[in-house]
Each structure stands twice: as C-alpha cells, then as structure tokens.
Amino acid sequence: MGTPIGDADIGRFATIAFRPVARYRMVPGKALGRFLEGLKEGKILGTFCGRCRQTFVPPRMYCSHCFRRVDRWVEVSDRGTVVTAVASYIEATRARASEPKIVGVIRLDVDDGAAAPSLFPGLLHFICGASVDDVVSRRIFGARVEAVWRPREHRTGSITDIECFRVVQ
Ligand SMILES: [Zn+2]
After folding, report:
1. What is the domain count for the chain?
2. Residue 132 in contact with residue 138, Cβ under 8 Å?
3. How far does residue 56's CA lie from ligand 1's centre (Å)?
C-alpha cells in the first residue's frame, strides 16, 4: 500500500517536462496480417464459419458466434452497402478537420454462393461522394459503395491501400 500525496506535498517534488519519442511496431497477428497482405494485392479477404454461415470482414480466426475455428478464407467483393455512417470533424491526429469527412461501416458483398454477406462490425472506412446532408437526411444508410484503390505501386499493406469507398448508383 502506498502513501497518498496530500496538499502539503504539492511543490515538494520536482517536475520535469518530457516529450517521449514513442516508436512502436505493430504485430497484426495471423488473420489481420493476411488481410493486410491481401489489400496490397487488391483483394479484400474474410474468413467463413460454415456452421454459422457467417463471413467475417475484417477476418477472425475464431467465429465469435460459436467460438470454433473458422473453416476457410474467402475473397469478398470490393463493393458493399453502408450500414451506418457519421460526419467526422476530427482528423486522425485529433486536430479539427477543415472539411468534414464521412466515415461509415460497410458490409461487403460476398460473391461465394455458399457464404452469407459479410458481418458486423464490417469495414470502417471513409465514404467519398457523400455529404453531411446525406448523413443527416439518412440517405447514406443503405447506399451502395465500391472501393477506390490506390495505384498498386503505392500500396503498403495498410487499410489506406483503399482510399475510400465511393457511392455508386
Ligand atoms: Zn460459427
């Protein structure tokens, strides 16, 4: 058990300003690693549980419904449907955005006849070609979208290999 610091202790201790150099390396794990490698190739990969007939995008190695190992990998379409969306006024750096960005959850189509549509949570990404009014009026919900891929030579195995999902008719 420690000794609590009281009002009398304030000022007794030196304070220093310190700006850490925070470097880190992320290990994505088996499922996310393969997913990111797939993006570099222009493919969106998910995993499929045959018992629940559910496809997970982003992929998981274990089904979150029946807790067994998924049965196989599936390539899903780069087209899908907007499940939900918001207008964000905050950049990834947490700075105020000069222009609002539309961010949504996209449920991708599954071409494989054996598999069900990709599942919640779906893919979180920017939606381009949509406005704040599309969100406020709820027109964006259920909208059809397709991936806008970065040129192959600029892909790095990151979710940003897809620039955004563009609204299509
Ligand atoms: Zn399952």
Report:
1. 1
2. no
3. 10
